[in-house]
Fold this sequence. Notes:
Layout lengths: L13 E6 L5 E7 L2 E8 L10 H9 L2 E6 L18 H15 L4 E5 L1 H13 L4 E5 L7 H11 L9 H11 L9 H4 L3 E3 L5 E3 L4 H12 L1 H9 L5 E6 L7 H10 L4 E5 L6 H4 L1 H15 L16
Parallel strand pairs: 3-4, 3-5, 5-6, 6-9, 9-10
Antiparallel strand pairs: 1-2, 2-4, 7-8
Helix pairs in contact: 1-11, 2-3, 3-8
Amino acid sequence: MVxxxxxxxxxxxxxxxxxxxxxxxxxxxxxxxxxxxxxxAHGFGQTRQAWLQTQRxxxxxxxxxxxxxxxxxGQSDRxxxxxxxxxxxxxxxxxxxxxxxxxxxxxxxASMGGLTGLMAQARDRLxxxxxxxxxxxxxxxxxxxRILGFMNAHPEGFDSFEHxxxxxxxxxxxxxxxKTPAQLAHLLNARPDGRLAWHWDPRLLxxxxxxxxxxxxxxxxxxxxxxxxxxxxxxxxxxLVTQRTVEHFLELAPHARHVQLPDATxxxxxxxxxxxxxxxxxxxxxxxxxxxxxxxxxxxxxx
Length: 303
């Protein structure tokens, strides 16, 4: 069932800045509404723009929300030269963003955002509910290799937006059409030599990514500790999360619910944003009593 959206102009979230525990500036965007808020944590190599359409719909439904650029991504600060990227920093930043949104928010975490959210919940008990987007405590090595292969493929950058658009289209052949320069603006930064480089700090690949393998046992423990409503949304065409990894997750957190969007890949929200956001809104209606205080529609439950 599709959640109806009010017939009014969509409102973009308002930009703001957060300050991390180690005094980095984290670029964020807040959507107006009531709480408990929805905290949206993007995946590795993405920015908060990955959640823009979902934020618009949450705000149109009267739901407070906040998304931010993870450190080293987008418009947020990069680590100083002598500060290596580490999982603990990312977990601390989840806490910073959660505190900015208000008490007991709902976490929506895609890939890396889901993993750091799980660890933050195990350590600090921040969230009243959690939606994991195509991420499980174990993941398929082939999927990781494909993603990292693309991210490592262009260390020299791109000579134009068209060049970047061609490479992205080849990596995501199921998406229709090529991205425009306006759509790519938040993904690429102009270098002094005039070439375009990815918005994320390349040090993340050599510092943060290798550390995630050492975190898997902690992530599994975090799943065992979950005592809040949890929804896993996976992509039916994902090569990172499969039936095998889903079953393992459900063994660790047997109360969790699982919904698969059959046409989506690992990039669930980007592949089918309407279906993803409908699924999120159903979950919020079912499991967050204060959700959509301004709405009186009967939206049914999630089956």
